[in-house]
């Protein structure tokens, strides 16, 4: 049993009971999880949640529903910890979804409400969702010469067939038995991972390859952080040459506004952006594969330009300016125009060997 998590939830409840017995309104002080309360810490190079909080008063009609949602999630979590069980975000939604007696109001109507309440509980207690015994569904895969132990099972990442090992949302209890790699290569695209896996890139180049099929999940970010911190492995990020690919890298390296309260467990300040870059468009003759910008792309790239962690970075500002000048973006798959295995046989090995990356 996680005694720290259980005690934290019990103290939260006891504090509310004290207020009620003292004939004071039960109030939760919830850290504000928005841009107005998120700061970029130059020392740690991560986004950090500020000290601003908002009161959630049970006797305030506009607060009462969210107040109840937070307590319901806390009760579910406490029960899970006591039973030493884990459940999914989806299960939590169904566990607390019911109509409040003598009303026509449900505690939650959509999963986004219970998910938000869980994140509020994380911010209030300082405990991660995983420590609260609540997990997301597995998303992403990994291959490499690594042997781990998970729930008593020995798992060899190099012998998981064509699909690789499915990465769970909670990787805290995984024990690394053997790690034979020089670096980790993370990519957003499943199709790119499949190509590298089929080409045995991880075996030929002595590395670990990881994909998340889009925006990086919390479990993958934590796994990357553990490999970086525990084994001092460089982390390379391979993403599209577009504002959204750049943003994926930003989240991995510096954290996100929504999860600023989890920055210490989620960020990878040593991460390196390997590609695709503006120079790659020139060097590998990819101009004919460019995709014209839409207004939303222009707006997003200008937002990135003004981020505190990018605005004084000459290398990144150069990428933003060149992208705006092109008024276009390119996907990783554009490299396939040079040959199906061009990315694994030439592009990646050469860029890593030459140290052609952005930090």
What does this protein look like?
- The protein is α/β, with parallel strands linked by helices.
- It folds into two domains: 3-135, Winged helix-like DNA-binding domain superfamily/Winged helix DNA-binding domain (Arc Repressor Mutant, subunit A), CATH 1.10.10.10; 141-354, 3-Layer(aba) Sandwich (Dna Topoisomerase Vi A Subunit, Chain: A, domain 2), CATH 3.40.1360.
- Helices cover 42% and strands 18% of the residues.
- It has helices spanning 3-21, 61-83, 89-96, 111-125, 190-198, 201-204, 218-231, 243-254, 263-266, 278-283, 295-305, 314-326, 342-354, and strands spanning 27-31, 38-41, 46-49, 53-57, 87-88, 134-135, 141-143, 146-150, 153-156, 165-166, 175-179, 183-187, 207-211, 235-238, 272-275, 291-292, 328-329.
- The strands form six sheets. The protein has a six-stranded mixed beta sheet, with helices on both faces. Strands 9-8-11 form a three-stranded antiparallel beta sheet, with no helix packed on it. Strands 1-4 form a two-stranded antiparallel ribbon.
- Helix 1 (3-21) runs antiparallel to helix 2, helix 3 (89-96) crosses helix 4 and helix 8 packs parallel to helix 11.
- The protein is globular, with a radius of gyration of 23 Å.
């Amino acid at each position: 049993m996680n005694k720290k998590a259980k005690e934290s939830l019990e103290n939260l409840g006891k504090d509310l009971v004290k207020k009620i017995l003292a004939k004071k309104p039960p109030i939760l002080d919830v850290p504000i999880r928005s841009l107005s309360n998120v700061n970029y810490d130059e020392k740690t190079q991560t986004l950090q949640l500020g000290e601003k909080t908002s009161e959630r008063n049970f006797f305030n009609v506009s607060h009462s529903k969210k107040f109840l949602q937070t307590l319901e999630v806390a009760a579910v979590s406490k029960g899970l910890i006591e039973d030493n069980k884990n459940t999914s975000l989806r299960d939590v939604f169904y566990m607390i979804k019911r109509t409040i007696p003598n009303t026509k109001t449900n505690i939650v109507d959509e999963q986004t409400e219970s998910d938000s309440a869980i994140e509020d509980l994380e911010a209030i207690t300082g405990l991660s969702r995983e420590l609260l015994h609540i997990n997301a569904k597995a998303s992403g895969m990994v291959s490499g010469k690594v042997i781990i132990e998970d729930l008593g099972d020995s798992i060899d990442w190099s012998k998981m067939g064509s699909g690789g090992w499915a990465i769970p949302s909670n990787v805290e209890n995984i024990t690394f038995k053997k790690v034979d790699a020089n670096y980790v290569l993370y990519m957003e695209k499943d199709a790119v991972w499949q190509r590298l896996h089929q080409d045995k890139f991880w075996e030929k180049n002595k590395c670990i390859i990881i994909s998340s099929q889009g925006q990086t999940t919390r479990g993958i970010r934590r796994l990357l952080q553990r490999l970086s911190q525990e084994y001092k492995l460089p982390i390379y990020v391979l993403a599209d040459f577009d504002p959204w690919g750049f943003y994926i890298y930003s989240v991995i390296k510096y954290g996100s506004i929504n999860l600023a309260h989890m920055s210490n467990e989620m960020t990878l300040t040593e991460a390196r952006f390997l590609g695709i870059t503006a120079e790659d468009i020139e060097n590998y003759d990819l101009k004919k594969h460019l995709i014209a910008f839409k207004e939303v792309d222009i707006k997003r790239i200008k937002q990135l330009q003004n981020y505190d962690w990018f605005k004084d970075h000459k290398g990144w500002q150069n990428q933003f300016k060149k992208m705006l000048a092109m008024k276009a973006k390119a996907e990783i798959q554009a490299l396939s125009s040079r040959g199906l295995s061009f990315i694994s046989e030439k592009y990646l090995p050469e860029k890593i060997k030459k140290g052609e990356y952005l930090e």
